[in-house]
């Protein structure tokens, strides 16, 4: 890290972190990723999303870390669990998983002051061909976005890479939710859009920390939030998928903070 550029805030309000800050983010990201690894063994037909969240709550404590979502804007759970046509922010509860359900589990921890935010897709029972395709394209779109991350590129390059990939597979990118800067805070500038035009938006700089978390729908991109004020669903009831990594910009690309220690970020190996 070039110290001339560390500890600065850009014109767009984006914090440029110092080299030493990467270690804190790696530790936090690993906590979130390990919990996402562990919960995979519990996902099955007959389980409730509340049971999965109970496990996550317990593991957060046992690992000596802290949930970022419990108490966040009144949210009361350690995870968001979004099943089938739920796009994001699904509230865990007594919903019973049935054969073929696909679900996103999103976990954020605060570890030693640093935020680690990640989500992945899981399957209960037998995965349908169309759901498998949706999950694969969503996962790969996140990786295309991450590949566009390097100093000198722009946030618009990330969004454009994701959008081109998703729409090339005749699926749609959700516009109503985006990724975000993070670090010692949960949600910081910039909004990381998962669509856009190359060369637009803030220029990426070494030391920026943010999430990329594309939500992809099999049908149309429009969403609506249910009466609980959290659960976002596809308006056309089509299936939706999401993957999220927290990353940091390095001199020649990026580092992923939320890599799976068990190598199981993608569910369909
Ligand atoms: N983890 C989500 C994100 O990716 C935010 C969840 S906020 C909650 O930004 F309150 F719904 F948990
Ligand atoms: Co996030
Ligand atoms: Co998240």
From TrEMBL:
Residue positions binding a divalent metal cation 1: 106, 117, 244
Could you give the cofactor binding note from the entry? Binds 2 divalent metal cations per subunit. Has a high-affinity and a low affinity metal-binding site. The true nature of the physiological cofactor is under debate. The enzyme is active with cobalt, zinc, manganese or divalent iron ions. Most likely, methionine aminopeptidases function as mononuclear Fe(2+)-metalloproteases under physiological conditions, and the catalytically relevant metal-binding site has been assigned to the histidine-containing high-affinity site.
Which catalysed reactions does the entry list for this protein?
Release of N-terminal amino acids, preferentially methionine, from peptides and arylamides
Where does the chain bind substrate? Answer: 89, 187
Cofactor(s) of this protein: Co(2+); Zn(2+); Mn(2+); Fe(2+)
Where is each Peptidase M24 domain found?
A: 24-250
What is the role of this chain? Removes the N-terminal methionine from nascent proteins. The N-terminal methionine is often cleaved when the second residue in the primary sequence is small and uncharged (Met-Ala-, Cys, Gly, Pro, Ser, Thr, or Val). Requires deformylation of the N(alpha)-formylated initiator methionine before it can be hydrolyzed.
Name of this chain's protein: Methionine aminopeptidase
Which species? Sagittula salina
Species lineage, top-down? Bacteria, Pseudomonadati, Pseudomonadota, Alphaproteobacteria, Rhodobacterales
